[in-house]
Amino acid sequence: MIDPIDTSTLSDIGLRSIEEAQRKDDEKNRLGQEDFLKLMVAQLRNQDPLKPMENGDFLAQMAQFGTVSGINDLQKSFASLSESLVSNQALQAASLVGRDVMAATGAGVLGESEGLRGLVELPESTQSLVLNITDASGRLVRRLELGTQAAGEVPFQWDGFGDDGKRAAPGTYYITAEARYGDRTEAVETLTANRVDAVMLGQGGIVVSLAGSGEIDFNEIRRIL
Fold first, then answer.
1. In the structure, what pLDDT confidence band is assigned to residue 68 with cuts at 50, 70 and 90?
2. Which residue ranges make up each domain of the chain?
3. In this structure, which CATH number among 2.60.40.10, 2.60.40.4070, 2.60.200.30, 3.40.250.10 belongs to the domain 100-194?
4. Which terminus of the chain is more exposed, N or C, with fewer CB under 10 A?
5. Rounded CA gap, 104 and 96, in Å?
6. What are residue 121's DSSP bridge partners?
7. Secondary structure class of 221 (helix, strand, coil)
């Protein structure tokens, strides 16, 4: 088996790897602002004295140069603004470690003695709101009847006891909500409170790790408790 050649070895003997050659060729073929000015000055020096460049053509080239320069400056400004926003967002997210937040994860962690809390967002008033709490195997542990509720946020608290009157084992539980509107029943969004364990900066943005609920995007956090 032939060992791969180290690119530093190629450089030492005056050769370039394919990737390096392509990168340098791309840089060589890129026309920058300085090159643009040099071309325009050369054009003015070598123009036919009997047929000088029209004022309109000259102004058009200057306008083109100004546009290119403006776009480059704008791109730099946007890049700087983006970095600043990500940095500020990362600082905000880092301050959440150890705190409870609410998100539409559909899951929550039941502790040894604590309960589990959250809220339901009702788009309209309902005659009957029901919460179904299941364990990791999908078994129904508790059914909470919240009765008639007005539109808006409806907070709830589960004490950790099942329908059999026994305390449920600590762990992750899943909560779904159903609201009855006349003769129809619809699933409604449920937010649960979970502790933030860690904050990570990924390629797609800031990722927050929640205890028992996995990872979510920072923008998915709906409320900080």
1. low
2. 19-93, 100-194
3. 2.60.40.4070
4. N
5. 17
6. 153
7. coil
